[in-house]
Amino acid sequence: MTTTTAQSSSAERRSAARRPARTPQQRRNFFWGLVFTSPAIIGLLWFTLYPVLVSLYYSFTSATMMKPAQWLGLGNYESLVSDSSWWDSLGNTLYYIVVSVPLGIAVALFLAILLNLNVRGQSIYRVIFYLPAIVPLVASAVVWLYVFNPQYGVFNTVLGWFGITGPGWLASPEWAMPALIIFSTWGAGNLMIILLAGLQDVPQDLHDQAKVDGAGVFRRFRHVSLPFLSPHLLFALVTGLIAGFQFFTPVFVLTNGTGGPAGKTLVSGLYLYQNAFQFFKVGYASAIAWVLFIIVGLGTALVFRLVGRRVYYGGA
Amino acid sequence: MPAARISRRRAIQALGGLGLGAMGLLTGGCTFTKGTPPITDVGLDKKPAPGRKTNIEVYSVWGSTVGAGMVNLAKKFEEAQPDIGVRVTYAPAGMGGGAVQQKLFTAIAGGNPPDVGQLVPSQAPQWVELGIMTDLTSRYRAAGLSQDDFFAPVWESITYKGSVWQMQWDADPNFPFFWNKQLFEDSGLDPEKPPKTLEEVDEYSAKILKKSGANVTKIGMIPWDSYGYSNSLFTWGFGFGAEFYDKEREEVTPDHEYSVKALEWIVKYAKSVGGADRVTVTPPGLQLHPFSTGNIGMAPLVAPNYRDIKTNAKDMKIGATLLPFEPPGAKAPGAGAWIGGWGMFIPATARHKDEAWEFLRWVGATDEGTKAQWETVGFPPGYRKAAVLAEIRDDPVMAPFYDVLTTATNIRPPVPVADFYFTQLDEQISNAVLGLSTPIQALRTVKKNVMGEWDRFRKEVEA
């Protein structure tokens, strides 16, 4: 008994040394804090964590939404490997990401640099270029259906002025995905704002010093601005990668959910949707989702490993 | 001469101007809107009439005018009897021509189903196997309704494995064949002589074709776009004499000899105009069917499209006949026609099945209900004995559809993986039309994939 008491009191002393005892007021605050945050916590657990865990379970079953699910083990994952449509959808998704993410970053960076220049009416230009980012995606996509019209659309009309017969865009197997990529750069305004904020954080005195040393515009951008922008660019790369794997709404609206023409715009998100809601293969769709999650995780880790160490965090 | 220098100020001003210009073009410069704008979600949240013994909930997949028609139909049902109130809830269908009804599926899966849902008839086998639908056989029998009361393709659609599962209140006659008399005349064709065979369609098409550079600006017909790739192949495949499934062997047959011939013809047609992606006969923003532009010589049309064209393009001279056919597989004009449409069903877990059945029966299989449906929603009934059919026969717009309704023998293949089948057809026909595979390769791929999916589904259902 004595020994136990001695041990307990020793543990209590160690605990007390680490953390001072809460006062009654602190305990009350903690309790009410929990009460007031509990709706959000419960919502997160019930509407996010629970469905995520259920989808993991479903990915090992024949879940259809309508009938009791049968345990399939790794069956869905094995089927994925031999599913040519899934491989095609993954290929289309990668094509979209590889082109649209760097292009989106380049466009946003270019606009941010221009909008960082000290010219009259600067704020108006910033509004103009940010405006597309706040238009709802579905509404933008509907408008772009007009833009991509092969005969009457803006693109082919402009190309026609130069004697070029434009492609069929969304009707053409070669040009449908490039059309979607062009559309996605339309919303570069969000990223542009972030990069603009980054550019404005670059210390002016460093620019001045570089100028005194004889550095030109490009060298100052390369050696002064770019290092300060690198955390923002890493952010853009990682979020662009994740968003690219979730690409869905524009392709759903612009191709009427078919993934056409000839399956060239069937991206992973759309294939997942088709399986879940059109073919009642909820288990299979869950497996697609989890494989995507793993790919996104690995891709993000790879980006951090390859690019993360080159990022400059100011004085940190 | 020194090179002109562009200042940063100039550069950004020019870019701003470009941005403004592009926005102007995108938002206002491309509107060629024509036709009657849709009535948006009018009265779609209809509450039941007060004081009824029982209220049922009916899901409507339609907004716009058809949705408003459903609401009025429900009101007429309430006027016809004192006991049942009807709530109409908007539950839009997504992609796939009604295949995806997320609200309906989640309501059923969540244990809160409506009393009446809508479906495309060919979906029934899969929904039956998944336990979604109520068997209505005994109710049909008790109401004295049998095979004789419905058009033959309709009866085939609503039955599966010897039982009746739905009430096909809309028998969509797909399709009469229409031609633009003015365009025929302008192209040196006799405006009163439509083609009877697909060989004649080719001859006429060659005369109608007009191009601007590589783009097609006037075309005889767009045979790969008769309401989507799969519907196109069904239409022209039947027109060649094809069959798309073998009921006895429980096997899909997209690679049927005449189906392959039909796709070969479609592919050849697309090549002859320079490629399917070069057809630009429709201005953007057009709410009417592209046939209304006057740039398409011949087209199969559904009733609402034809009605809209007749209302909004009054000067257009349009002829109507039966679909051209292709011997030796098909024997006569109109052989390609099939019956599509919509059915109503009672979910297996619905709470008010008796009252729901009263609604179904009234809408789809009574003189009073079919007439009310015709006057509110405006679709031809599948009930062969409906008195309103005489009215439809005498309607100048609907007369061609009446002819198809009373003569068509085909339906889309009602197999348990129908939507997978149609999606596969859409993808593979698209491949063939765009020259990425041959017709036979495309259709064999469809068969292989669909049979694989059917096997998987069988095992899943049996498990």
Radius of gyration of CA atoms of chain B, rounded to a whole number: 24 Å
Main β-sheet description of chain A? none
- Going by CATH, the homologous superfamily of the largest domain in chain B would be Periplasmic binding protein-like II
Total helical elements of chain B: 17
Which of globular, elongated, flat, extended, rod-shaped describes the shape of chain B? globular
Strand order, largest beta sheet of chain B: 3-16-6
The CATH topology name of the largest domain in chain A reads: MetI-like fold
Q: How would you characterize the overall build of this protein?
A:
The complex is a heterodimer of chains A (316) and B (463). By secondary structure, chain A is mainly α. Chain A has two domains: 27-75, no CATH class; 82-308, MetI-like (MetI-like fold, Orthogonal Bundle), CATH 1.10.3720.10. Helix content of chain A is 71%, strand content 0%. Chain A has helices at residues 2-18, 24-58, 75-81, 84-115, 122-134, 137-147, 154-161, 176-185, 189-200, 204-212, 217-245, 249-254, 268-278, 282-306. In chain A, helix 4 (84-115) packs across helix 9 (189-200) and helix 9 (189-200) packs antiparallel against helix 11. The two termini of chain A are 53 Å apart. The mean pLDDT of chain A is 89. A three-stranded antiparallel sheet of chain B has the order 3-16-6, with helices on both faces. Chain B has a three-stranded mixed sheet with strand order 7-15-17. In chain B, helix 9 (229-240) packs across helix 16 (418-433). Helices cover 43% and strands 13% of the residues of chain B. Chain B has helices at 8-28, 64-80, 102-109, 124-129, 137-142, 152-158, 181-186, 198-208, 229-240, 257-272, 303-312, 353-365, 367-376, 388-394, 399-407, 418-433, 439-462, and strands spanning 54-60, 84-90, 117-119, 159-160, 163-164, 167-170, 173-174, 176-180, 210-212, 215-218, 245-246, 251-252, 298-300, 318-322, 338-339, 342-345, 410-411. In chain B, a hairpin with a 2-residue loop joins strand 9 (210-212) and strand 10. Chain B is α+β, with helices and mostly antiparallel strands and 463 residues long. Chain B folds into two domains: 38-172 and 339-411, 3-Layer(aba) Sandwich (D-Maltodextrin-Binding Protein, domain 2), CATH 3.40.190.10; 177-337, D-Maltodextrin-Binding Protein, domain 2 (3-Layer(aba) Sandwich), CATH 3.40.190. Chain B contains 17 helices and 17 strands.
